[in-house]
Amino acid sequence: MVVYGVLTLAAIGSLLVLIAGFVGAKPFLALNLKPDATMTEAQLTALLGALRVPLIWSMLMFALGGCFVFIAFFIFAVGTLY
Asked: How much is the pTM?
């Protein structure tokens, strides 16, 4: 029974980390900047302001997914000791 709990926690954590990667990468892929493009400080400030919300969500999902994976590993490690 513990094995199914560990697998479920690991699956949820891995899925959250995967979603966090897509959420964090999508705004950068949508920018479509040229390699030789130069930006002023005002443009960079506006860009960071626009990317703030997706990056915050990405970091939160990544942290939550990491917690799920860590809990699954901890349960597995403690279960193998006994």
From this structure: 0.69
